Amino acid sequence: MRLRPNELDRYAFVIGLILTMAVGMASGWVRSSGHELLEAFVYVGATIGAFMLYPERVRITSTGGMLGAAGVVLGGFFFFLIYRHVRLEYASSEALFGFLALSALAIPVFEEKVVRQIMLDGARKRIGPYAGSLLCSLLFAWSHHGARLVFLVAFFISLVLCAMALKGVDTIQRSMFHGAYNLSLLAFEAFYK
After folding, report:
1. DSSP per residue, the chain
2. Residue 133: what pLDDT?
3. Using an 8 Å Cβ cutoff, are 165 and 120 in contact?
């Protein structure tokens, strides 16, 4: 059975939720099997599939660079406020490189496409932009395991990214903010400790 475009829109939230859960399970399986670098292929493949299901016109502008800089500043702020008390352990330098590539490139593009375009758009059409943003941000924060403060920061960052999406900032530009934020957290963690 092939879904028509209007059916894709009607079921967007559910499709995004299923895609997120499937990628999470596949990613966990690949990571537990000791092949951290293959995890990037899970995210890249799912992102390509999401772009094929829900195409969008992508444009690279100077706004993306400014959003990236804002992501670095916000990442540094939250690192010194909260994350400096969290210690990340890496089995090898290969695992660290894979984690950096995932956190700065593959995961942000996937999350921005699926969570804040597909899921948010589906939720917005059903329950409105504000409730949709709250729902997507709650699910996003819940998927980021950690202490209560980590949950709150992830929720806040997701609300900011939802606001960007609702204002028309495209997936790649939001990904630049998100990736720069993630990378700055990891860079501060690597240099500070």
Report:
1. ----HHHHHHTHHHHHHHHHHHHHHHHHHHHHTT-GGGHHHHHHHHHHHHHHHS-------HHHHHHHHHHHHHHHHHHHHTGGG-----SSHHHHHHHHHIIIIIHHHHHHHIIIIIIHHHHHHHH-HHHHHHHHHHHHHHHS-S-HHHHHHHHHHHHHHHHHHHTT--HHHHHHHHHHHHHHHHHHHHHH-
2. 95
3. yes
pLDDT band at 6 (very low <50, low <70, confident <90, very high): low
What pTM was computed for the model?
0.80
Counting every residue, how long is the chain? 193
Per-domain residue ranges of the chain: 5-192
pLDDT digits (tens, 9 = 90+) for 20-50: 888 888 888 887 887 766 777 888 888 888 8
Report whether 8 contacts 19 (CB < 8 A): no
